[in-house]
Amino acid sequence: MADIAYLKHKILNGENITESEAQTLADLTPEEEEQLMEAAAEITSKFGSKHFDSCSIINARSGRCPENCKWCAQSAHYPTSISSYPLVDHDECMRLADYNREQGIGRFSLVTSGRTVEGKALDTICDYYSELAEKGGMHLCASMGLLSAEALRRLRKSGVTRYHCNMETAPSHFPTLCSTHTIEDKIRTINAAREAGMEICCGGIIGMGETAAQRVEFAIALRRVNPDSIPINILSPIPGTPLADSKPLTEREILLTVAAFRMIHPHVVLRFAGGRAALSREAQIKSIHIGINGGIMGDLLTTIGSQIADDKAMVAECGYTF
């Protein structure tokens, strides 16, 4: 049984709840669920900035990935209809960056398919980032798999200030979804990125067959890497992948997940990412009220996101600056 009032008081007084206390958030009565969301809203109001942390990503290299992640359209293991192409060319990269800068987006990231990036592709990407850094106007992020420590140092030198590498799901659930790399591989990359001087963006995907208890386990496990930002993706089942027929989470399950993450990570930016377009506008507004204070704007990697203008209006309605 969860004592939400006690946990809220503890967090508001600057303490973190323990792992055993966090685990009580996975099995609540309807009354306790309402208390949880109210507590999460109060914690968000106290500790969160009123500036919504916006970012945008571009699919800088698509498809043909050797990893067998069961959720991913870009895996070469599954017959998806994803477009495959090598590294995005210079002009297209700069055009997309300019557009997002003009829209007031705060962060911009290149995201590449594949296990890692090296050789000429890394050289080209570092050149892109150096040019983007010189133009200024946006923080630069990168999401490029299990990079070497040297590659991460080169990205940092080129102007990248934050590295993204998702843990994806609870440690107990991850091996059922991917066997070509491990969570420990990810954590080694994250640690190397931090050692290179970068902030960390690390979260994952909910709705991949995990239990409510595993969603809480996932949130607790993220404490290992102390992320600055936690992207919360909601699975968009991709035809051809093993998760194509996954049963979607209800809006209430998603809201309770956001609230639990806020209780476990009171100071971190919780960032809505893929899949949120399937939520009603009411549920998205509720999510912002109880914990979400960042988001990926515009189109995403292999699914359609949301329009930046619509997001700006919704964020302003919730009392945030953009």
Structure, described:
The chain is an alpha/beta fold. 40% of the residues lie in helices and 14% in strands. Helix 3 crosses helix 9, helix 8 packs parallel to helix 9 (251-264) and helix 9 (251-264) packs parallel to helix 10 (281-290). It is globular, with a radius of gyration of 19 Å.
Lay out the secondary structure.
Blueprint: H1 4-12, H2 19-23, H3 30-47, E1 53-61, H4 90-102, E2 107-112, H5 119-135, E3 139-143, H6 149-157, E4 162-164, H7 183-195, E5 199-201, E6 204-206, H8 212-221, E7 229-234, H9 251-264, E8 269-272, H10 281-290, E9 292-296, H11 308-317
Parallel strand pairs: 1-2, 1-9, 2-3, 3-4, 4-5, 6-7, 7-8, 8-9
Helix pairs in contact: 1-3, 3-9, 5-6, 8-9, 9-10
Number of strands: 9
Largest sheet: 9 strands, parallel
Number of helices: 11
Strand content: 5-15%
Element pattern in H and E: HHHEHEHEHEHEEHEHEHEH
Oligomer: single chain
Mean pLDDT: 94
State Rg: 19 Å
Q: Which stretches are low in confidence, meaning pLDDT under 50 for 5 or more residues running? A: 301-305
User: Roughly what percent helix?
Assistant: 25-40%
Strand order of the largest sheet: 5-4-3-2-1-9-8-7-6
Class from helix and strand fractions: alpha/beta
